[in-house]
Request: fold
Amino acid sequence: MARETESPEVAPGTMPIMFHLREMRDRIFKSAIALVIGTAIAFIFTPQILEILIKPAGDIDLQAIKLVENLAVYFKVALAGGIIISMPFLVYQMIAYIAPALTTREKSIVYRILPVVTIMFLGGVAFAYFVALPPALGFLGSFMSNIAATQFQISDYVNIVTRLILAVGMVFETPIIIMVLARMGLVSPQWLAKRRRWWVVLSFLIAALITPTFDPINQSIIAIPLIILLELSIILARLVYKKREESAPAET
Reply:
């Protein structure tokens, strides 16, 4: 039997599609394992996490209407906690997947800002919990309360709170993601600045989707920070995009 010849080395940028698919599969598998571990850790502390999630609503009585509702809520809270715990590793896997397309200097920059991504995500979680949730829950609890007393169903409450916290946390990562895209040359600060009006509209649209209330005040509490985040994104993009233009001749 003839000996199989070794496959030649593949130059960066010309890797076959099967290589990228295998790489994606491995990254997704590792992310799933990290999510399972994070959920298992959160599962142990789910009663304490539930107590923390209930605090922004003040003194309320949660009700379980269905027989398995408490059990479903327990697992849902554990999963949300697992996402928050494993988020740094999930972001790392995403960055590691695109790393082969970056230069050595760009990889160094990307890995250095990884802790900043985690801080921004946690900052978004804190903003949603301390700033956005109390007025939203107060509005929902007091709206037409003179006609019918609002009863909080535990599954609805947990859905609203976890959705808002996770969504705002992810949105707060926007400046870092845009900075990475600008450093790679995929977006420019001029391109971002020209689309300010669209971003304002998009900010209020995102706020309407993730905010549980329909009043403009609570939606503005989410939309205004998103608009500020775009301005921060433009500033960061100008810094790194300028460095890319300066370093481009040297790399060439």
